[in-house]
Structure formats: C-alpha cells, structure tokens
User: What shape does this take?
Amino acid sequence: MSESLVPFPAVPGVGTTLEALITAGTRGAPGATGEFASLINSIALAVRIIHNRVRAAGLAGMLGYTGETNVQGEEVQKLDVIANDILCAVLEKSGRCAMVASEELDEARVTSETGKYLVAFDPLDGSSNIDVNISIGTIFCVLRAQSISGHLAEGFIQPGTKIVAAGYSVYGSSTSLVLSTGHGVHGFTLDPGVGEFFLSHPNIRCPERGNTYSINEGNWARWDDPVKKWAAWIKGEDKALGLPYGHRYVGSLVADAHRTLLKGGIFAYPADKKSPGGKLRLLYEANPMAFLFEQAGGAATNGVDRILDLIPKGLHDRTPLVIGSRHDVATFRQFALRER
Ligand code: FDP
Assistant: This one.
C-alpha cells in the first residue's frame, strides 16, 4: 500500500495543523517513508511564502507585467513568475519531487534525481485579477514519478485517475488551502500570525444540488447552441424547478471553484468560438479541481465526459470544464447531449 493512501484521522480536532494531520495520516502506513508527507508539507510551505508575497505585492513593486509572454501566449505578471520560482525552489529543496510542470514553464523541469513524485501546478491562478486585489490562488496535483519509454516528463501525460493528491489555495480575505490525498477533502485556513495552516473545514462535501451558476456571460455570442440553451434555462423563471439560479463569477478559477465546492451549484468554462478546445488547462487546472470535486461528492466533466478519464497529449493541453454539484453537472450534460 502506498503511504499516500492512508486516510486522515477520523475526527480531527480544533487547532489541528495541516502538518500534524498529514504526518499522522501517513505514519504507520506499510512502506511509509515520510516522503509523501514531506512533499505535501513542502507545497504548504511554498503556499505560505506565496501568500506572504501576494499580501505585500502592492507595496513592494511586485504588481504589473514582466513584458514577457508565457507558452500559452499570455502576458506574464511579475507575481506569476515570483510564485513559480517559489514553488520550483521549495520543491527542489525538498528532494521529494522528481519533476515539476507549470503553467509558466514551456517544458517540465527536473528537480531531484531521487524524488518519487511529480508535481504539476498553476503557480498563480486568476492572473488578470492580481492587480485589482481580487482573490487569486495556486492549484496543484501530485502524481507518482514514472518514466514512460525512458522519459520522466512523459509521466505527466497520464489521466487524472492517476493523481495521488491535489489541492488549491485561495489568497482571499483569508488564505485557505483545500487538499485531498484521496480520502475526502479538507480545508485549512492560514493563521498569518502563527504561520500555520489549521484545519477549518474537515470533510468538505459539495451539496448534491446548488442554486448558483458561474460562467463568463460575456462569452455568450461565442457559445454553441447547447450552452446558450442551458444558460437561458438556468436563469429562466420556474419555481417548481428551483429556477432561476443566481449568478456569480469572479474570474479566478480558484475563487469560483471554492464557492461552488462549499455552497454547491455549477462552474462552467465551455469551449467557444475563441477557445474551441476550452480555455482552462487540463493538467494543472481541470484535473486537480476534478479530483477535489469528485472526492467531495461533486462531479467534473468537459460538458459530457469525465475530466479524470481524459488522456492528455501535452503538458499544456486545454479542456472545457464543468464542475460542481452532481445534479447540476448532470443537467448541463443533458443539454450538451441533446444536440449531438
Ligand atoms: P486568468 O485568465 O485571469 O488567468 O486560468 C485562467 C483563468 O484566469 C481562470 O482562473 C479563470 O477561471 C478564467 O481564466 C477566467 O477567464 P475569462 O476572463 O475568460 O472569464
């Protein structure tokens, strides 16, 4: 049995730190070496450092663009680079991570010859919200290091079903870290004075059905008919069906996903005429979120098919993404299938 497959203790107490829970969760597991716990604690350390930089960004000249564009052709913000460098440096120092893949790196990068794990991340999600002080975050997932045909980087090219842990942080009114190692989902809140993540949301469950939908309505003209029909339906008046749903859209995946995970409802970034393959990245945005939503009893599809079953072709593949309450994701799917 792998050390990552050990459940968290059943009744985590008040004042429980992330580090204590992770360590207790892996202690005593057959074959446990503490490497997985150490890796997760390193990611939490990187998140705490990024939190610190985000909080001071307006004062320390860290806002604005670098003048570069990333592999996706998007303008790179200074904080994107800072967050990426922090994660790479901390994971390299940990010695537990063989390779990293990042939104900000064209290719996967070797970080340790001996590491047992691969980590894919979006170091600072919601870049367009950085300069206007709206919630942003970090998204990551952990896979086992394996070389495919002698290429370690190919280990990233696996379906999301192979993920052993995933999480995201939100740098919002507080800084939270939501994490799953495959045994449910737990939320932690940073006490900035103490510098520790404390368990604040044990065993998060995404409600079976919600009353909020989250989508960039400004893309209406670019959507296919099924998406237009679904969007018209969900904001139509029908008391018996619980309609209309309210609309919320922050424009940072971490923030929109976090609200949807806790309160239920649906977040959708479908394919459209501008982004025919979808906008969000499969390996380090859609897959980690899909893993978390499924672990919390919710669902995640590309509109029709399960996200975690998709086989990536490259590190920076994009996909349409529909996540949320099972009922709401299933209803979206019915609209999508009707016109096939
Ligand atoms: P951003 O463009 O600000 O980097 O990761 C991409 C992302 O943000 C997500 O965080 C967010 O959900 C989405 O794109 C927002 O896209 P739109 O501005 O097109 O709505």
About this structure: The pocket of 2,6-di-O-phosphono-beta-D-fructofuranose is lined by residues 125-129, 216, 251-253, 256, 279-280, 285 (CB under 6 Å). The two ends are 43 Å apart (CA to CA). The mean pLDDT is 92.
